[in-house]
Amino acid sequence: MVGREDSVEEPLNREPPIKALVSSFITKNDAYDRNHGAIRHLSASTHTVRVDGLVNTSLSLSIAQLNSDFKQYEVTCALQCAGNRRHTMRTLLKEVEGIDWGDGAVMNCKWKGPKLRDVLLKAGVTADKKQTVGGPPTRMHVAFASQQECQDENWYGGSIELDRAMREDADVLLALEMNGQTLSDKHGYPVRIIVPGIAGARSVKWVDRITVQREESQNHYQQRDYKILPPEAVDKKAAEKFWDSSPPIQDMPVNSVIARPLSEEKVERSPQGTVMVEGYALPKGDQGPVVRVEVSGNEGESWVDAEIVQGKGERWCWALWRAHVKAEKGKRRLLSRATDKGGNVQEEHSQWNLRGVGYNGYGESRDVEVV
């Protein structure tokens, strides 16, 4: 686990052991925690969400109104930190900045609440609204804010493109429930944003303001963090000139991880000369589901198809998979790679970046002792 403290100086940031994480398709009791400040403790009876900006009618919605005035939808999706697998980038490529996340900064949960689209429509936003002042139409944005005091800002915020928010099939929610229960404080009670397929940094917890605007959120965590900076940004000083020109990470990449066996574990071959390998896989952004996972026990010279055990056909979910792979005795490296419905295939390595976000090189377990 990473640290468990809960304050602005020492926020709660932790991930579960990977084997425990993949023991259940729905992540229930051991979801990862990512915070930039202290957990907020709010009252559902007094909390409101203001909807404003480029809308016809500004709204102030209570939790009771979000429950009763809008159709409720349940969406099962994976939510992952942009820095998931940062440790692998750090150890395989070169040093990066940020929390040393392993492979467990992801959860697959059932979320329930009204669609953001429906709330925006009530405020008077049309699905095709675009900025046209001074030139051709450009993309609009919807920004989310929470008055959470953070390490680098006195509030937390993020944004997505308005087009994504207004798509019926994008399933963006104002979530009131997680896995059939009211949200817990640490997961955003009484209401949070859930944006399937997009980095968890945009699924703002304890949301109290939603704004339709011409620009992205100007919050620190949209503008000065969670970006894949170019390789030339080798340190903080060199990064300065790239922050404004580098887009914030949104859609997460296709990915897979090996959960069993872990690196340096000892495993016994079957009489057929195979070892069992298990893990999870994720599609890129909105291009799910995962349609194929391949595993290699001979440095990628040959691959076998894994069985997708759970999550087959699920657009927003992870896929839990299992394969029996031939492996010679001795120290071996096991590899995995995923393909999604959109045709995105996981590559051996991904681009190094200073903040260590968006890593999706092959899943791997190193120095597995096959006996």
- Spatial strand arrangement across the major sheet: 2-1-11-5-6
Q: Characterize the quaternary organization of these chains.
A: single chain
**Rounded average pLDDT:** 95
N- and C-termini, Cα separation: 30 Å
Count, helices: 7
Strand content: 25-35%
Unreliable stretches covering 5 or more consecutive residues: none
- Rg, alpha carbons: 21 Å
Task: Count every beta strand, where a strand is a DSSP E run of 2 or more residues.
Answer: 20
Please describe the biggest sheet, giving its number of strands, its sense, and whether it closes into a barrel: 5 strands, mixed
Characterization of this structure:
This protein is mainly β and about 375 residues long. It has seven helices and 20 strands. The mean pLDDT is about 95.
